[in-house]
From TrEMBL:
Species this chain originates from: Eleutherodactylus coqui (Puerto Rican coqui)
Chain's role: Subunit of the V1 complex of vacuolar(H+)-ATPase (V-ATPase), a multisubunit enzyme composed of a peripheral complex (V1) that hydrolyzes ATP and a membrane integral complex (V0) that translocates protons. V-ATPase is responsible for acidifying and maintaining the pH of intracellular compartments and in some cell types, is targeted to the plasma membrane, where it is responsible for acidifying the extracellular environment. Subunit C is necessary for the assembly of the catalytic sector of the enzyme and is likely to have a specific function in its catalytic activity.
Superkingdom as given in the UniProt entry: Eukaryota
Molecular functions (GO terms): proton-transporting ATPase activity, rotational mechanism
Protein's UniProt name: V-type proton ATPase subunit C
InterPro entries named among the record's database cross-references: ATPase_V1-cplx_csu (IPR004907), Vac_ATP_synth_c_sf (IPR036132)
Presence of keyword Transport: yes
Subunit structure, interactors included: V-ATPase is a heteromultimeric enzyme made up of two complexes: the ATP-hydrolytic V1 complex and the proton translocation V0 complex. The V1 complex consists of three catalytic AB heterodimers that form a heterohexamer, three peripheral stalks each consisting of EG heterodimers, one central rotor including subunits D and F, and the regulatory subunits C and H. The proton translocation complex V0 consists of the proton transport subunit a, a ring of proteolipid subunits c9c'', rotary subunit d, subunits e and f, and two accessory subunits.
UniProtKB keywords: Hydrogen ion transport, Ion transport, Transport
GO cellular component: lysosomal membrane; vacuolar proton-transporting V-type ATPase, V1 domain
Family from the record: Belongs to the V-ATPase C subunit family.
SUPFAM superfamilies for the chain: Vacuolar ATP synthase subunit C
């Protein structure tokens, strides 16, 4: 049995088309919402992995070996130093506080503006060191190494990448199938419009034939001229006015150029990768 039987009443056909398109629309919104949520969360995390060393996440940069951990007295800080200040940092970092561990600095990452250095000092002079560092244009990152949190952040990114990949394939296949279904429903809607408009224009009993034409762009004007000449007798007044310029009436727009003595609806295929 045909999906849209020609012997079905118009109301049944329109209800069927409307129901199908409503279901496709609802499914699309649900699937797109799920996919876009995953994509958005992933992009949000990925944005944190780029940018300045002052703001970006350090989860993919730092290692456990870069820090003094589990010490009651010592702590390792991360300091962003401008590239022009590398030499100054090496000369002054030990004197920014009286309790900095000598030769404890190490460059662990760089970007276009500067580098990320480690430095180890006693916990009780953290505030003093930060203030002195700021005075010398060295910016201390508010970062404390927590292996579980860093691993959790990495795992979250990997999970979102896997979820996005898992969602993408089925979503793409669903789109291809349901685009076809939606396009078929759209063309059938056009066919219903042709039928209804023809009945309204030419009356009953039904005595007309519907066709689909796909002319070359260069031959469009010639095709219109041929059709207008062929069906001129169906509406002499409209055909006679085809070449007239519409009058400008305040509050009313009349465009005779879009009216023909035959029923015509355009199916716009410009957005499709379509070859005749």
């Amino acid at each position: 049995m045909a999906k849209y039987p020609v012997k079905q009443p118009l109301q049944n056909l329109t209800d069927s088309l409307s129901k199908q398109m409503s279901q496709i629309d609802a499914d699309l919104k649900s699937r797109a919402h799920t996919y876009n949520n995953i994509k958005g969360n992933l992009q949000s995390l990925e944005r944190k992995t780029v940018g300045s060393l002052l703001t970006r996440t350090l989860a993919d940069i730092v290692n456990k070996e870069d820090f003094v951990l589990n010490s009651e007295y010592l702590i390792t800080l991360l300091v962003v130093v401008p590239k022009t200040g590398y030499a100054a940092w090496q000369k002054t970092y030990e004197s920014l506080s009286t309790m900095v561990v000598p030769r404890s600095t190490k460059l662990i990452a760089e970007d276009t503006d500067g580098g990320l250095f480690t430095v180890t000092l006693f916990r009780k002079v953290i505030d003093e060191f930060k203030a002195k560092a700021r005075e010398n244009k060295f910016m201390v990152r508010e970062f404390f190494f927590n292996e579980k949190e860093l691993q959790s952040e990495k795992d979250e990114i990997m999970k979102l990448i896997a979820d996005k990949k898992q969602q993408y394939g089925p979503l793409l296949r669903w789109l291809k199938v349901n685009f076809s279904e939606a396009f078929i429903a759209w063309v059938h809607t056009k066919a219903l419009r042709v039928f209804v408009e023809s009945v309204l224009r030419y009356g009953l009993p039904v005595n007309f034939h519907a066709v689909i034409l796909h002319p070359n762009k260069k031959s469009m004007k010639r095709l219109r001229d041929v059709l207008n000449a062929l069906f001129r007798h169906l509406d002499e007044a409209a055909a006679a006015n085809m070449k007239d310029v519409g009058m400008d009436i305040p509050g009313l727009q009349l465009n005779n150029q879009d009216y023909y003595p035959y029923v015509c609806f355009k199916i716009d295929l410009n957005s499709l990768d379509f070859e005749p």
